[in-house]
Design brief:
The complex is a heterodimer of chains A (about 325) and B (about 325). Chain A is of the alpha/beta class. Chain A is built from 11 helices and 13 strands. In chain A, the strands form 2 sheets. Chain A has an 8-stranded mixed sheet, sandwiched between helices. In chain A, strands 1, 2, 4, 5 and 6 form a 5-stranded antiparallel sheet that branches. Chain A is globular, with a radius of gyration of 21 Å. The two termini of chain A are about 30 Å apart. In chain A, about 50% of the residues are buried. Helix content of chain B is about 35%, strand content about 20%. Chain B has helices at about 45-50, 75-80, 90-95, 100-110, 120-130, 145-160, 175-195, 205-210, 230-235, 240-245, 250-255, and strands spanning about 5-15, 15-25, 30-35, 60-65, 65, 85, 165-170, 195-200, 215-220, 220-225, 300, 305. In chain B, helix 4 (about 100-110) crosses helix 5 (about 120-130), helix 5 (about 120-130) packs across helix 6 (about 145-160) and helix 6 (about 145-160) packs parallel to helix 7 (about 175-195). The longest helix of chain B is centred in the middle third of the chain and has 18 residues, at about 175-195. The chains are: A alpha/beta (about 325), B alpha/beta (about 325). At the A-B interface, helix 7, helix 8, helix 9, helix 10 and helix 11 of A face helix 7, helix 8, helix 9, helix 10 and helix 11 of B.
């Protein structure tokens, strides 16, 4: 049985201009110890998918529906807010892009790291402090003990993100969701953080949902990828298949747009022309059709159903990209 | 032939913080110099100092032979027409109260270009040049997507017919598909108009696509400079090498095989930089002698040098 099973997740937001369908009918499974990448551009629904699973979407204006979101034997859709709060931080934890906004600027690092431990693991002051030092050392913060008294602004961006990861891991969660966790960091610091996440995942078997717009980071870290566009998963597959034999026009477009540091002389990029669709208007055909370079006749007639290419690899695309 | 822009011994010091320290480089007409490095390395400050948006503490910035650092305000203003800048956050750089047409028109008006009847036609021509549809002319910045706003910013820069554009992280805030549109647009404009660019970015992949030459900065200094092909194929400075090794590539097989040089720790406090080579506190191959003095540039090949004393050891 998978650790997380999401079926037909749909998240809408009521706005002045109409209902925005941020996520439309997303389904996937995540196995224990697996690293799943969610890739796509701004507004594709990656973050809202994660927030919906974490039950962090404010309702209203949001409205989350799903046939099922099962996690670790629990039906997350049926949890009360109080029950959800017990699960969050303990069994599933999340790290966001901007640690400065997640950390409280007026509380010390020590106070914030021990708070989670006292709350969820019921540790007393001394034990929580000891454990917090251990955790901070584990994520590579030197002289952790002396730094407990520091405030977030006294830490660099990379160090703050390490603190967030330490806090997220403090209760040994079975699922870690990282939302663009390294996007704001410099590449050398990003490499440190990814190295850390890989090690933790290997040592503890934590399942990870890694949200990123960066195909390079995903290629190096994930076992499997869901490519999202306009609130839907348009392609899903094991990492090697997806990168070497992409099956959706959008995935191909993303790869053609991505500049690389390696390989032969830099070629001209092949951008995806136009803009993503407005998610207020109803989308009846393939949402990527107006920007697609490989569209075929059928694309103009009906919406594409998922086509299976190999075990675990499918795409909702009529074009015969995978042969 | 003299270069379009020649920067010589450029310093921007804020008290103890040497944000830019002794930079020398140049750019030819129609060419692109990429300036790369991590946050706080001084790459944006360098761009601003070239345009005299921050005043350099020392050094020369020769544009077409004239030293911008020595010009009075009026002459500088006249010359600024030839040097333009675009920023990462295009929305923030556009006046929210003006529609697109006036944003572009304003640039023309300031320099007295295309007055009267010619103005409207020129605005349309410019919008067309950057691939903006005519109907956007009446839109306000908040109605534009990030990519459209960056096109308007580029359009404003082009309106005054510059010879050099400083591009400060122009695509960093954009989604990858839109980023590729703007990269291609900048390349096309360079071809058509013979523009020179200083392309500032933390993204080594984008810089590779845009640049002819690349300068790598660390804590206010250029540590390595070379032609694009050379620096990506044969990086010499240990900082360049670790930086390149840290950039992920979108290929799982290559990623699985790659050897990363993971740097320890964070950037040192710029107010108290290490003595000698500034990179030595994080350098994987540092030796005692690195603390002794600022390493001189080691010539490695035509147009390629790096500041590392270990490069002169026989290898």
């Amino acid at each position: 049985m998978p650790l997380l099973s999401v079926r037909n997740l749909t998240t809408r937001f009521a706005t002045d201009r109409g209902v925005v369908r941020a996520v439309s009918g997303v389904s996937f499974d995540l196995e224990e110890g697996e690293v799943l990448g969610l890739v796509g551009e701004s507004g594709s629904g990656k973050s809202v998918t994660a927030l919906s699973i974490m039950r962090l979407v404010p309702e209203p204006p949001g409205r989350v529906t799903a046939d099922a979101i099962e996690f670790d034997g629990l039906d997350l859709m049926r949890l009360s807010e109080a029950e959800a709060r017990e699960i969050r931080g303990a069994r599933m934890a999340m790290v966001f892009q901007d640690p400065m906004r997640s950390l409280n600027p007026v509380l010390t690092i020590g106070r914030q790291t021990t708070e989670v431990l006292r709350r969820h693991q019921k540790l007393d002051g001394k034990a929580a402090r000891r454990r917090a030092i251990e955790l901070l050392e584990m994520v590579g913060i030197p002289m952790a003990e002396r730094r407990l008294g520091a405030y977030p602004h006294q830490f660099s961006g990379g160090m703050r993100q390490r603190v967030m990861i330490a806090m997220a891991l403090s209760c040994n969660p079975r699922l870690l969701i990282a939302d663009e966790a390294t996007t704001a960091l410099d590449v050398t610091i990003q490499a440190q953080i990814i190295d850390l996440v890989k090690r933790l995942q290997r040592d503890r078997g934590t399942a990870v949902i890694w949200i990123s717009h960066d195909l390079g980071v995903v290629a190096g870290l994930c076992d499997r990828v869901n490519v999202m566009y306009a609130g839907t998963v348009v392609e899903s597959g094991p990492i090697r298949r997806l990168f070497h034999r992409p099956g959706h026009g959008y995935t191909v477009g993303l790869m053609g747009s991505t500049p690389r540091v390696d390989g032969a002389a830099a070629h001209r990029l092949t951008p995806i022309e136009g803009l993503p669709p407005n998610l207020i208007d109803p989308i009846t055909l393939c949402p990527f059709l107006p920007r697609c370079r490989v569209a075929v006749a059928a694309c103009h007639e009906r919406p594409p159903a998922p086509r299976q290419f190999a075990a675990g690899h499918w795409a909702a695309c009529f074009a015969d990209l995978v042969r | 032939m003299s270069r379009l822009l020649e920067v010589d011994g450029l310093d921007v010091h804020y008290g103890a913080v040497k944000a830019v320290d002794g930079l020398s480089f140049g750019v030819d007409r129609g060419r692109t110099l990429g300036l790369v490095g991590e946050s706080g390395c001084g790459k944006s400050t360098t761009g601003y100092a070239i345009l005299q948006l921050v005043r350099p503490s020392a050094g020369r910035v020769l544009f077409d032979g004239a030293d911008l650092c020595r010009l009075d305000t009026a002459s500088l203003r006249r010359l600024r027409r030839k040097l333009q800048i675009i920023f990462q956050d295009a929305h923030a750089s556009l006046n929210p109260r003006l529609p697109v047409g006036d944003l572009v028109g304003e640039a023309l008006d300031i320099h007295g270009l295309f007055p009267g009847a010619a103005r409207a036609g020129r605005i349309r021509e410019l919008l067309d040049l950057v691939g903006l549809a005519g109907h956007l002319i009446e839109r306000y910045p908040h109605e534009l997507s990030g990519g459209q706003a960056q096109r308007v910013a580029i359009c404003r820069a082009l309106a005054v017919e510059p010879e050099l554009i400083v591009c400060d992280e122009p695509v960093s805030a954009l989604d990858v598909s839109i980023q590729a549109q703007i990269v291609n647009l900048l390349q096309d404009l360079q071809q058509r108009l013979g523009l020179a660019y200083i392309f500032i970015s933390h993204d080594l992949s984008v810089v590779r696509h845009m640049s002819d030459e690349v300068a790598v900065m660390y804590l206010g200094k250029i540590v390595e400079l070379a032609g694009k092909e050379r620096i990506y194929a044969a990086p010499a400075h240990p900082y360049t090498r670790s930086l390149l090794s840290a950039v992920p590539v979108p290929d799982p097989d290559l990623e699985a095989k790659r050897q990363r040089i993971i740097l320890k720790g964070d950037l040192p406090d710029p107010a108290h930089p290490p003595s000698g080579c500034r990179f030595r506190t994080r350098c994987p191959i540092t030796i005692e002698r690195c603390a002794a003095g600022d390493p001189p540039p080691q010539p490695l090949a035509a147009g390629h040098w790096a500041k590392c004393i270990r490069l002169s050891e026989g290898s």
